[in-house]
Write a structure and sequence with these properties.
Radius of gyration: 12 Å
Largest sheet: 5 strands, mixed
Shape: globular
Number of strands: 5
Structural class: mainly beta
Strand content: 35-45%
Distance between the termini: 23 Å
Strand order of the largest sheet: 1-2-3-4-5
Amino acid sequence: MAFTAVNFKCISGTNSKGGRLWMYREAATLGAIDEDSYFDNALSFGLLDQDIILILGSDGFGFFETTVSSGVVTVAANESIESS
């Protein structure tokens, strides 16, 4: 699956001295969603380096920290909790 803009929302973080928390919901697994470059199109929404994305997938949810470099977004699990 590909990134779907309508499923991506900023849910906190108007303070310029701190990162922002985003939420993304998709009917794909967490493993499919956290692939490199999946969130590249999210840069146009203001996604920044070290922001956190709460990802809600078909197999659970997790908190992922972003790394932005040269227009490429990668995410790494911060604390991933999958439903049983």
